[in-house]
Specification:
The structure holds two protein chains of two kinds.
Chain A: H1 3-46, H2 58-98, H3 102-111, H4 120-131, H5 136-143, H6 158-182, H7 186-194, H8 199-227, H9 231-236, H10 244-255, H11 258-289
Chain B: E1 8-17, E2 20-30, E3 35-39, H1 46-54, E4 61-66, E5 69-70, E6 81-84, H2 96-106, H3 111-124, H4 140-152, E7 158-162, H5 170-186, E8 190-195, H6 198-204, E9 207-212, E10 215-220, H7 222-227, H8 232-237, E11 242-252, E12 255-260, E13 263-268, E14 275-281, E15 287-289, E16 297-307, E17 312-318, E18 321-327, E19 339-343, E20 349-352
Parallel strand pairs in B: 3-8, 3-9, 6-7, 7-8
Antiparallel strand pairs in B: 1-2, 1-4, 4-5, 9-10, 11-12, 11-14, 12-13, 14-20, 15-19, 16-17, 16-19, 17-18
Helix pairs in contact in B: 2-3, 2-4, 3-4
Chain lengths: ~290, ~350
Amino acid sequence: MSEPAAASRAPARDAGGAGTGLLLLAPALLMVTALFLYPLGYSLTGAFRGVDGAWTLANFTKSFELYSRDIGFTVAIIGLSTLLIAFFSIAIGGYLTLGENRTAVVILRWLYRWPLFIPFIVAGQLMRAFLARNGMLNNTLMAMGVLDPADAPSLLDWRGIVIAFVWKQTPFVALLVAGAMATLDRSTIEAARNLGAGRLRILIEIVVPQVRQTLVVGLVLSFVTMMSVLSVPLMINAQSPTMITVDMAFRINAYGDYGVANALGFLSCALTGAVAWIYLRHGIRERGRQ
Amino acid sequence: MAGGPASVEFRAVVKRYGAVTAVDGVSFTIEPGTLATLLGPSGCGKTTTLRLIAGLELATEGQILIGGRDVTRRAAAERDVSMVFQSYALFPHMTVLENAAYGPIVDGTPRKEAHAMARAKLELVGLSGFEARMPSELSGGQQQRVAVARALVLEPQVLLFDEPLSNLDAKLRRRVREDIRELQRRLNLTVVYVTHDQQEALAVSDRVIVMSNARIAQAGSPRDLYERPANRFVADFIGDANVVAAELIEVSGDRAKVVLGGIALELERRGARPGPVTVAIRPEALLLSADRPAAPAAPGRIGKAAYLGTHMEYTVTSALGELFVIDRMPSRAFAAGAEVWISLPGTGVAIVPE
């Protein structure tokens, strides 16, 4: 074949290759569009449409009028849970990395992942049995003589939701954090020890800063997951104030009010989007620094 | 931290990891203000020994003394010992200044003062102006100097180096090892240095401790180790050596007459008895000539010849066995297959005690 002829056929072959590639991707693209992008877009735009189909902000006005307390409650619950998850996952990862008692490390490594395999609804049910006024926690404390039966509290309120979220999500973040800690150059830990730092100081000043990015990823993913959980607040505390997932379910089931439910959903997306944006900015700044 | 260099003493120290003994009854003393090297092949226990000095490992048995003080059960932070790690172990999220100042800050020194101390040590290692940089912005040699500054800032009694040159290229290696030696002399530090490179050990050390299979094979000055190896392992490990069989025929005081390949030599006896003995011959101690010399010589044939610029390397087959020979006169090259005479002037030859 002459060279010019070969050159003229090359773009045609490239175009054919690209076409085949698109054809191979098409089923996946169709699935994503049909099952994710279309419902998401429909739901988000639905937040800005009235019952007559006209564009309006009335759904948001109504959402704030009825549920501003629940929005604040949701942000507070998830924020507090995220902080506690960060604390416990650092503690677990730190002990797995710096712990000197091998038996304790092995037991902790075996135990801490269990909640990962338990669905949220089961976690909610577990917490009901554990935290109720006549639940296992109070019964145990009463049996030990620590708690008077007359003073036994019920933790089935905001505290129950936080405990359930922290119990369920800590293993996931701890798994990521412990993995990142395990890949650290151990000589940095030994260098800090050699310079006189204790284990807590090493954890805070040497280990955590090096796994910060992984920790933030885990927390952002946890934040998004907790924002979307309905079963836990529904089972532990469905009274006011409660989380906006419960409100969304109520608007649809009781009134068929998709407009307000969509507006609340939009606010959830905005909150998780804001957190994701903070994470992305942080990641870009970190990479720029490195 | 206490001022002045300190001695390091090991008394029958043992370190076991389960069934594995990494250090087996090791005893030595390193004098204050000297540079001692722990030398040996991979897995011989040299790094574990260094980590035992640093307190990063605790001895299973025995006693470790630093400056005459028993530190066997003391934590790393209580030993007044600083270490420069093989990978430098710089904190990647801290600047050069923060890295160097970390020790004093942990020690409770106010931040401003700690930074001043760190700046002084960074200046000492030639890194003024690099304070605000991150470790990832430095070359390997510069990172190593930050690690040295960080280790020096607490003015430790003993400074430890774990294979400090292994991540540097060949040219930089020579310069950095000279810098370390110069720093050790200038600051009058006790330095313990781990390496598997015998040339590096010979070049920088006052004293070399050769380790093999978790034990000390020989300890002494570089010249001692090279010229009077205590056993076959040291003879082979320190520089190249031709280990050949010989016959000790006559003993006179501390001298011995030895015959090898028909050549008679008078050597230091080193406890050997009449009968078969092992002799180590350094490759540069063997002289090659085309014509039979006046001195006793054995015939041989050149097997392989390699030109290395400053010298020639030969493999010679002879009555002494197959010999590795270094000839410092590359202008007088023998071709492979050439017949030669091998003579031994006497230096660079030693009986190896069995």
